[in-house]
Amino acid sequence: MLDFGFDKLALIGAVALIVIGPEKLPRVARTVGHLLGKAQRYVADVKAEVNRSIELDELKKMKTQMETAAQDMEQSVRQEVASAGQVFESSWSGLEDGSGSDPDYLGHSIAPPRYLSPKKNWRLKRGATPQWYKQREGVRRNVQSGAARVARFRPRKST
Q1: pLDDT greater than 70 at residue 98
Q2: Cα(127)–Cα(141) distance, rounded to whole angstroms?
Q3: Pick from 10, 13, 31: which is nearest to 22 by CA?
Q4: Where are the domains of the chain?
Q5: How far apart are CA 112 and CA 116, in angstroms?
Q6: What are residue 99's phi and psi, to 5 degrees?
Q7: How many whole angstroms separate alpha carbon 159 and alpha carbon 156?
Q8: What is the sign, positive or negative, of the torsion defined by CA atoms of 10, 16, 17, 18?
Q9: What are the residues facing 103 on neighbouring strands?
Q10: What's the CA gap between 96 and 60, in Å, rounded?
Q11: pLDDT value for 37
Q12: pLDDT digits over 4-43, tens only?
C-alpha cells in the first residue's frame, strides 16, 4: 500500500501545522482519525461480506456434490434391490413349479427345504421366563417330592 516512514510523517505534520494552524490542528487530526476509522470499518465489512459470499458458494457446491452422491447411492441401492428381487422371484417360481432343480445365481440347484422337527428344550424355555411372571401365574419354582407336598398341605393335628 502506502509506504510512510517516520520522516515522511514528520514532514506531513509540519506542513499541516503551518497550513492549518495550531488552534485547528487537534480538531482536524481528530476528524481525520474518525474518517480513517470509518474507512477501516467499511473495508473490514466489505472483506467480511466477500468472505461470506465465497463460503456460501463453497457450501452450495458441497450441497450439490452431496445431493448427487446421495442420488447415485440411491440409484445403486435400487438397482441392487431390483436385481436381488429378480433372483428371488426366479428361484421362488422354480420352487412353485415343483421342479426343484432350477439353479440359483451361483449355479447351485435349489431344492425345497426339508422339514426339521423343532428341538424342544423345556428347561431352557423355563429359565428364560421372568421370575415375576412365574410368580404371577403360579408356576412352581422349587421341586418337591410327592410326600413333601402332601405333608405340606395336610391339616395339622390340634393338641
Answers
A1: no
A2: 10
A3: 13
A4: 7-97
A5: 12
A6: -70, -45
A7: 9
A8: positive
A9: 109
A10: 53
A11: 94
A12: 787 887 888 888 888 888 888 889 889 988 999 999 999 9
At 109, give phi and psi (nearest 5°): -80, 140
pLDDT band at 72 (very low <50, low <70, confident <90, very high): very high
The whole-angstrom separation of Cα 91 and Cα 105 is 9
Tell me the C-alpha distance between 100 and 91, whole Å: 9
Please identify which residue in the block is written with the cell numbers 428341538.
Answer: 119
For the entire predicted model, the pTM comes to 0.38
pLDDT digits (tens, 9 = 90+) for 137-158: 877 767 778 888 788 888 877 7
Cα–Cα distance, 140 to 103 (Å, whole number): 53
CA distance 145 to 122: 20
| Chain centroid to CA 23 | 69
Q: Which amino acid is at 92?
A: W
Indicate the pLDDT class of residue 83, thresholds 50, 70 and 90.
very high
